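Same chain as my last thread, 446 residues:
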Amino acid sequence: MASTYLSKTFSSAGNRKTWTWSGWIKRNNISDNMKIFNGITGSAFGVLGFESSNILKFENYTGASMTTNLSSNALFRDTSGWYHIVVTFDTTQATDTDRVKIWVNGNLISFSSTTYPSQNSDGEINNNIQHTIGSQATTYYFDGLMSHIHFIDGTAYDASYFGQFDANGVWKIKTSASVTYGNNGFFILKDGNSVTDQSGNNNNFTVSGGTLTNTEDNPSNVFATLNTLTLSASQLNIVYGNNKKSNTPTSNAWRSIVSTLGASTGKYYFEVRVDNREEIDLNNFVVGITDYEQSDDQTATNGKFFAFSRGYGYHAKNGDKLNNDSVTANGVAYGSSWTTNDIIGCAFDLDNGKIYFSKNGVWQNSGDPTSGATGTGSAFDIATGYTYFPVMAQYYGNEHYSFNFGNGVFGNGTVASAGTNASGNGIFEYDVPTGYTALSTKGLNL
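reply #2:
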């Protein structure tokens, strides 16, 4: 949603003293000023969002006067999972600390700075002004994913109405909250990218800027993405849900970036599309898997994940398979080179210690990912007993690539024609080999 926002202006003001907002969000980038929910007219506004310091903040200004200002003690820097945020605003409470409460993943958070609203005062949210989701008017866009957005007019509900802890102490979503929405209440983004109100109030929102893209990633099934906390991420400009690399590295060095999820057992599949490829000097691109604990991405040598014994890659320029060569990067003759619009599939079998690559749906080197321990077409084996992460490495060059870890999206567009996937987990351009699945929290537990 980096330039996308939703908007609605209520036809009349609701209860400006008491309301609840609940939503699930997943951050793509950190250290930016990003607004989540906002009601604004001129200098009067109420707003919930992240500051560039990665604190969560709620403010209310009536005219030019600040009436509420709450900044979290905690920092929110996780780009791999979902946060569930619940805000209750209830100025009818006699105790000032009861007038605004914020829960994150079922836990009531504390604040480093506190200005609470006065008793029985009106805030700007739920007024008959423009309300936006994913921005503050047309600035401070939220960069990430959102799901199951509830707004309750006239009732202060705590987080337990929208989520619950499971037997392992993990906060889980309640997909159908038992709440009374009130006149201006709404429920959008329920099971996709629909802005049609599911509360029964017909308080539909409008996509007022950008494009609202549907994704399989959701609070109940978190998919792998490229990890923006990897040291090289700032060199590569990771965008579109942290699944697209769209920048030229600023120095002539290898840069690697791994996924947010890894696995030590099981069979997994992901895809990479070449969006743009320019041959400049020694530029190269390699995709594969790595045991990230064996190497890092701080130097040119270590940025070559395939230079280590537990790094396995498929080379775009030569079509070679690369592994354990820290000097020449000469690999094993394996398959075809690849270029703009090609889609590379990677199937890695951690149970039998095998890896396979496809180009536009054709498995290279006569590979058969379903061959099990035989490893038909596998140029070399994978060392078992380690945790592997999907990974990319690039040398200097203006090349753009989009990853699909099962979200069903390349960059900002969906796959052209989804292939089959017997696991029922994830959407890919080409058929997923039988026995393989997407690398996601559900896939890790199949």
